[in-house]
Design brief:
- The protein has 415 residues and is an alpha/beta fold.
- It folds into 3 domains: 171 residues, 3-Layer(aba) Sandwich (Molybdenum Cofactor Biosythetic Enzyme, Chain A); 78 residues, 2-Layer Sandwich (Alpha-Beta Plaits), CATH 3.30.70.2860; 154 residues, Maf protein (Alpha-Beta Complex).
- The protein is 43% helix and 26% strand.
- The protein contains 16 helices and 17 strands.
- It has a 6-stranded mixed β-sheet with strand order 2-1-3-8-7-6, with helices on both faces. It has a 5-stranded mixed β-sheet with strand order 14-13-15-16-17, sandwiched between helices. It has a 4-stranded antiparallel β-sheet with strand order 10-11-9-12, sandwiched between helices.
- A hairpin with a 2-residue loop joins strand 16 and strand 17.
- It is elongated.
């Protein structure tokens, strides 16, 4: 049986973008691990009626409702009063919470203030979820077969309460299913094309397996989500479905372990004792950044040259002046020489190169903005490819870097 949760995040600062709602993000991840499905995440202002309306609707539509924020001692903190009003109960001094705050303040050499007393006046039907790292108490309620959990908005306090007591109470209160996710990463084929390839396969998925498409820059991640009660059975089903997808999609799949393209490349290089260098123009070091973001890259990455100006391409890389004069810096001939020359200069097994018009200016009718050439030199073979990307510089740089890594990956597959 599916157990569903709704997360209500309270605070004007969340709505105006002053504060990022990391609480809902973290709770979603952790609840998913428990087997709880997230039905909705709602952000609310510090307004009593909106909070009451959202709470009423949520209780009717979920097994668990988690509220974060609004438990402080100031006038804009309205969650406690809203909960009391929703349940039709009084606020009473919670002696356990009071004792905890007194002990905490004494340990810190501070005195009890009226604001602290206000924070331990809780709805009389609340079950205390003790906050050992702060003064705002977590609370647990039960209403019409729905659990309502109220938590502080301060992230480290909220996480502490849930890790210490909240998740354990959820596990003991519900018979939770197992939720298993598998991620298949693809590159170079659009979402609609993938959907067309696997259309018949997707139609045959059983009801307990869901497929989601998560498109990114140049790539699409497919997420298989399985829900059930038997871990081993789900794991076997997931493995079989992933293998079926790989067979259908072929070499556009670069990872079934949710690894980045640069990580996949790094593992191949390390496993085969290969070294790599880069000559970057339009990517300005971004390609090297991706490679060096992988721990252990010193085993295979020797270095790079950012040859942005033509003079640097000629003087430092050794690209022929005639090549640039006859074909231009953005050409197959130039980028192939760049890849080969950086490989020779560093003594690496592989050389990668990029050169293009990243934008937003610098284009021409023959070579408009987004015209990029990439190349891979490996052994005695040099492979180049033309890309026609966007007019957005911020997109073109990472798209180019990923494209040249994928070019190398395909070369590995062809060996």
């Amino acid at each position: 049986m599916k157990i569903e949760a709704i997360i209500l995040s309270v605070g004007d600062e969340l709505l105006i973008g002053q504060t990022l709602d990391t609480n809902a993000h973290w709770l979603s991840q952790e609840l998913d691990k428990l087997g709880v499905s997230i039905k909705k995440r709602i952000t609310l202002p510090d307004q009593e009626q909106q909070m009451l309306d959202a709470l009423s609707v949520s209780v009717e539509g979920a097994d668990i409702v988690i509220i974060t924020g609004g438990l402080g001692p100031t006038k804009d903190d309205k969650t406690v009063k809203c909960l009391a009003k929703y349940f039709g109960v009084k606020l009473v001094l919670n002696q356990m919470a009071l004792s905890h705050i007194k002990a905490m303040l004494q340990k810190r050499g501070r005195s009890l203030k009226p604001s602290h007393i206000k924070q331990v006046e809780l709805p009389e039907n609340a079950v205390l979820l003790q906050n050992n790292v702060g003064t705002a108490s977590g609370m647990w309620f039960e209403s019409n077969n729905t659990v309502i959990i109220s938590l502080p908005g301060v992230p480290y306090e909220m996480r502490h309460i849930m890790a210490e007591v909240g998740f354990n109470k959820i596990k003991s209160s519900f018979r939770l299913p197992i939720i298993l996710h598998k991620h298949i990463n693809t590159y170079g084929v659009g979402e609609s094309q993938i959907a067309a390839i696997i259309h018949d396969w997707e139609l045959k998925l059983p009801v307990h397996i869901k497929l989601a498409y998560l498109p990114g820059l140049g790539e699409v991640q497919l997420r298989l989500s399985l829900i059930g009660s038997a871990q081993e059975q789900l794991a076997m089903e997931a493995h079989n479905k992933v293998q079926e997808l790989v067979e259908l999609l072929g070499d556009v799949v670069y990872s079934v372990d949710n690894e980045s393209l640069e990580c996949v490349i790094g593992k191949y290089l390390a496993h085969n004792n290969l070294t790599i260098t880069m000559a970057e123009s339009c990517t300005g070091g971004y390609l090297s950044h991706l490679i060096t973001s992988v721990p252990g890259c010193s085993r295979y990455f020797l270095g790079s040259i950012i040859a942005y100006q033509n003079e640097i391409k000629i003087q430092k890389l050794g690209v022929s002046e005639a090549t640039i004069a006859n074909h231009g810096a953005v050409s197959a001939e130039t980028v192939e020489e760049m890849a080969n020359q950086v490989k020779i200069k560093f003594g690496s097994d592989i050389g990668l190169a990029t050169s293009g018009v990243a934008g937003p200016s610098g284009g021409s009718p023959q070579k408009p903005v987004g015209t990029i050439w990439i190349a891979c030199a490996m052994g005695n073979k040099i492979k180049s490819k033309k890309l026609q990307l966007t007019d957005d510089r911020a997109k073109n740089i990472p798209l180019t870097a990923k494209a040249v890594l994928n070019l190398l990956r395909l070369e590995f597959l062809s060996q």
